[in-house]
Amino acid sequence: DTGVSQNPRHKITKRGQNVTFRCDPISEHNRLYWYRQTLGQGPEFLTYFQNEAQLEKSRLLSDRFSAERPKGSFSTLEIQRTEQGDSAMYLCASRGQGDNSPLHFGNGTRLTVT
Amino acid sequence: DAKTTQPPSMDCAEGRAANLPCNHSTISGNEYVYWYRQIHSQGPQYIIHGLKNNETNEMASLIITEDRKSSTLILPHATLRDTAVYYCIVRAIPANQAGTALIFGKGTTLSVSS
User: Is B8 on the interface with A (CB under 8 A)?
Assistant: First the structure.
């Protein structure tokens, strides 16, 4: 399967710990997006990369959230000093060339903060 | 991007057509209509998109009204596996930036029963 891959699928952590999630996009896709989804809500956009450049990060939820895509391939999303309110599904998506090419999503990382 | 309005839930009998409506009365001339669906515990899956003409693919048909203020996603022969949350999204394609993220609402929960 050459779809978007996210690891881990599930993460349980204690409040105050740092967590990092990884996303491997579809290999030829240069655009990568992170979303967060809480129960009963649609996905909420967080940040966007084109190649290694982070072009939109104003919607990251706080300064505890950061994302990187150092070589323009895989990306990581880090949450520092986790809080119980950070419990959610974190989704990654990628897009290829073309103005209206669709987003392809991974199956997400489910974070539980205890 | 224009806002969309969808019913929170719909039911459909297996084998019948499922017609999911979406209102986007403030849509602009350069905004596309996208449909995604999300099956429980998975990431959203792209279904179809269109600008002004009706579109059909192996998954569904998209009917856009002439004034473009509403659209309908049609699943011609719904199966139990089509039970999911269906999201209707409108997105502009700015001429100088192709990276605009999709902004999701709460969608329509479609329940297909036998």
Answer: no
CA dihedral A8, A13, A19, A22 (to 10 degrees): 10
Q: What is the pLDDT of residue B95?
A: 43
Q: What is the pLDDT of residue A97?
A: 80
Where chain A has pLDDT below 70, the residues are 1
Pairing of strands A75-79, B61-64: unpaired
Asked if B41's CB is within 8 angstroms of A42's CB, the reply is no
Contacts of A72 (CB under 8 A, 6+ apart): A30, A49, A51, A52
At residue B59, what is the residue type?
M
Using CB atoms, pick whichever of B32, B41, B102 lies closest to residue A103: B102
- In b/e form, how buried is each residue of A28-50, taking b as 16+ CB within 10 angstroms? ebbbbbbbbbeeeebbbbbbbbb
Helix residue ranges per DSSP H, chain A: none
pLDDT digits (tens, 9 = 90+) for B18-50: 999 999 998 988 888 999 999 988 999 999 999
Distance separating alpha carbons of residues B76 and B87, to the nearest angstrom? 18
Q: What is the pLDDT of residues B93-104, one digit of tens each?
A: 554 444 567 888
